[in-house]
Amino acid sequence: MSTETILITGSAGFLGSLVSISSASDDAGHPIRLLLTDVAEPNAPPNSQAKTLKVDLTDPGQIRQLFETAFGVPDTIYCMHGIMSRGAEDNFDLGLKINVDSVVSLLQAAREYGTRASKVIKFVFTSSLAVYGGPLPKIVTPSTIAIPQSAYGMEKLTCELYINEFTRRGFVDGRICRLPTIVVRPGPPAAATSSFLSAIIREPLSGQRATCPIGNSRDSPELNLAVWLASPATTIQNLVLIRTIPAHKFLPHTRVVCLPGFTVTIRDMLDALERIAGSQTLEMIDFKDDETNRRIVLSWPATFDSEYAMGLGLKLDLDGMDRVILDFMAMTKKQ
Amino acid sequence: MSTETILITGSAGFLGSLVSISSASDDAGHPIRLLLTDVAEPNAPPNSQAKTLKVDLTDPGQIRQLFETAFGVPDTIYCMHGIMSRGAEDNFDLGLKINVDSVVSLLQAAREYGTRASKVIKFVFTSSLAVYGGPLPKIVTPSTIAIPQSAYGMEKLTCELYINEFTRRGFVDGRICRLPTIVVRPGPPAAATSSFLSAIIREPLSGQRATCPIGNSRDSPELNLAVWLASPATTIQNLVLIRTIPAHKFLPHTRVVCLPGFTVTIRDMLDALERIAGSQTLEMIDFKDDETNRRIVLSWPATFDSEYAMGLGLKLDLDGMDRVILDFMAMTKKQ
């Protein structure tokens, strides 16, 4: 019987709910105790040993509740709450409050309750490639400088600094995952600049029109713009795996890990969709070049050296865009 | 008649008081209005147009007083207060409060009062080479990643992220100076790992014994350890200059500037002292290798590419250690 307790913030969100489901039991099938929290009360995965709590993490007093349940002090925290990129850009002060201040409060609580319970809590944090900006090398490595050009990127990087320092001092055992763009996200479009990357696959497959803001036609040279992607399944697998990696395997001076991904151009994505779903599906896409959107996407790094992440045992989408689309179709059919 | 107002925090400190003196008038000799603040009431430079205020910057309410004096909303803020490196390492929570939280509060106040007065306040910040850590290239450039390995370094880098983002959004006009180690500092030893670099020059020159924590004798190979230094005079000159650089001259994606310095080994420093003050002066130094101190100093970058900083018009100590020692002797004689 596992006595492990995992706290997941933002667990009503897309990735948060998938991590909740995947963390509901250990390798041997024993249930893991889940503390699931969000601004709205999240759902517990079926057959799970879960407590769900509606908590406002911008209030340090409410954060303390998470450490005082009958499940005791959690062994691992998945810190996955936050406002998305476009939301943080548009609501600057709210972004700082939710994407930085509440994470620092959570870290301080993890330090305090961890010390009291004589354990070093694992602190898994979802960061983003939005931390990068300015001139970048062709391939991003663990020694590439991150100079954010957005509120979201700056907020994620600030949290990374706190988590690294709290880890260095032994207050928590941090694991920072910089995520690729996740494709295909189900559901309605999210408040993220990257949300069209899911929409141009998801909408046509369900017979709905979608707008591609890169290029003005299927032949447009702008479609050669490359992006760095990972599937939801592989990302969740990696987020679950990273909790189990022994601390000494990480680099000694940082807990930042860029999760593995793969590079495709927008044209590659459309070609894959055509191969799988036929050319009539492609006709559901309107092309309307949005220079601002293109500029932002172009500022993101499109290729990373994943050697370090793979050396830690993290996984890669092996079959590129075709497999991502097929998996998405299988998942939506199942629901 | 200048109507410029400059606010200087930490102005009772060593660099803060020197910047206050150098900022008391403009190039034409007209007085500049100074708002000088520190935890203890600072001194005003002689013949200056200055208001001195004792303010606790950890209290956002007290910060507002600085923007509501008869001098009006300041045009430039020199944010120079803080706990030194060793102090921040030993008093972690106080370090976060003073070295991060109070800077963010000051930035928010600068944004608010600047907006109200329809001006973008220049925000000059003194950062440090302590932001660097982990494996480093032989020569640090503007694209070298900073991975702090100390509370102080992490705190400085966090403030840099805020200042860059506040600048990107047009809330303030940030200028971030990463300082080399400043040698020779006058006065009693400071709570910094680097303080011995001043003490091994300053103490022997005044006939007092000093301890060099690198190497066990004058012939020790450990003395070949290299450090990155700048004189107080050149540093102050650069801190004054950086306020006058037009905003468009900075890199578009970051306001971080590593101030120019020069590389010397500990042995070079002692050789210079011997040349200038004679071998009997060297006998005032006891060697007692402190492995921890040596490890920390060794983790700092010792050589930077100053091309960008020099291109901005910033100044370099041209005559190395000998000139630094002679200038220090001249300064102490004058007092």
Q: CATH H-level name of the largest domain in chain A... which superfamily?
A: NAD(P)-binding Rossmann-like Domain
Class inferred from helices and paired strands of chain A = alpha/beta
Name the beta content range of chain A: 15-25%
Count of domain modules of chain A: 2
User: Assembly state here?
Assistant: homodimer
Number of helices, where a helix is a run of at least 4 consecutive DSSP H or I residues of chain A: 12
CATH class of the largest domain in chain A: Alpha Beta
Instruction: List low-confidence stretches of chain A.
Output: none
| Level-2 CATH architecture of the largest domain in chain A | 3-Layer(aba) Sandwich
Characterize the biggest β-sheet of chain A.
7 strands, parallel
Radius of gyration of chain A: 20 Å
Identify the strand order in the major beta sheet of chain A.
3-2-1-4-5-6-10
- What is the tally of beta strands of chain A? 12
How much helicity do the residues of chain A have? Answer: 25-40%
Instruction: Name the chain pair whose interface involves the most residues.
Output: A-B, 25 and 25 residues
Q: What is the general shape of chain A? A: globular
User: Could you state the order of secondary-structure elements of chain A as H and E?
Assistant: EHEEHEHHEHEEHEEHEEHHEHHH
Using the coordinates shown, work out and report the CATH topology of the largest domain in chain A.
Answer: Rossmann fold
State the end-to-end CA separation of chain A.
31 Å
Domain NAD-dependent epimerase/dehydratase (chains A, B): 6-211
InterPro entries (chains A, B): Epimerase_deHydtase, NAD(P)-bd_dom_sf
Keywords (chains A, B): Carbohydrate metabolism, NADP
Pfam families (chains A, B): Epimerase
